[in-house]
ATP-binding protein
Amino acid sequence: MYRKITRFLEAWKENKHRKPLILQGARQVGKTYSILELGRSHYENVAYFNFETNPKLNETFDENISPDYLLPILSHIAGQTIVKEKTLIVFDEVQLCERALTSLKYFCEDAPEYHIVALGSLLGVATSREKFSFPVGKVDMKTMYPMDMEEFMMAMGEEALVAQIKKCFETDTPMPSALHDAAMLLYRQYLVVGGMPECVLQFTQTKDYILVRHTQDTILASYLNDMSKYNNVNEIKKTRLVYDNITVQLSKKNTRFQYKLIKKGGRASEFENAIEWLCLSGIVSQVYKVEQIKKPLENYRDIDAFKIYVSDLGLLCAKKDLAANDVLYMVEDLNDFKGGMTENYVHVQLTMNGYKNYYWESRRGAEIDFIIQRDGQIIPIEVKAADNTRAKSLRVYMDTYHPAYAIKLSAKNFGFEDNKKTVPLYAAFCL
């Protein structure tokens, strides 16, 4: 299956100023597969080391982490001759060996001609800052996410539809109604299946939602296991409470995160470490409110007002135990959850495109779902789950701040009217 990160990895390989690469991201998003595919197609051989399946590797790094010492031993362990420029060296589950992470600094300084990638699922939470020094400035870093809507459609064999969507997005021309309806169905399928590569592959091969849900449940179980394995004992229960509560928060009309919904009398001081753990692990992310619409937006965020979204829509549906048909037909029973789920979807697509997302509220309660910086402009994005797109809040925002234009994401077809760019939900990846 095509992954957009392939282009980044190929550019990294050819970069004359290349440093060792740390590829991070939540479990099961396809890091190992993408790197091994790079090795197979662009290198003569791959020397692969997994610190989870081969814990004895740690002993090698405990002794000495200079490249001169490590390379002959690693060649022997891998059963591969490691050759400058021609061998891809891969450290998988590198969070389990902090000395291996530190060694990247010396590969950068003393052996830059060797191509080395370190993969980690829980780098932010599993490594002890007291025991090792992170190789700041000596590594390239990239975060990998689940498959976005475009990658999902391409996996489904819809390359021509993707091309048509991009064309209509650029020209603000409505899609032919039959193609619009087909793309909306794919969007709803994506909500159920999500972007975890194993789930997408299973769905393309079988169209069996029950099989996909079983795989999603397995991934969710591995996340819960990580919460116990890589967490402070006192924080395990709190982390699970927060994670379990996110779907409840997304069902509220106001999706701003509220500690009192986790437990009666809940406070920030009690749960902020748990939220930080979930964010660092890549399982969830926070979107802060901005108090002023000025650049840089980060300077004006309200640290006490935020929303939390999960990293994958399929896992969200599995966690909520939603029946596939209920999502595919958007039944009335889901009315309370549709808005939060749609916001979560848009946040995921924007994040994958590299945006830092915020939201905005007026003193009188008008709210804009997302504020982004696009092409140097601060742009408001209004999100609607259906095609009823009357947006009073957007009018309030536009009258107050006069943006270059606004974006409305909904079930409606492409268009541009009254300084608002209308974009169907399935085309959020185009932004």
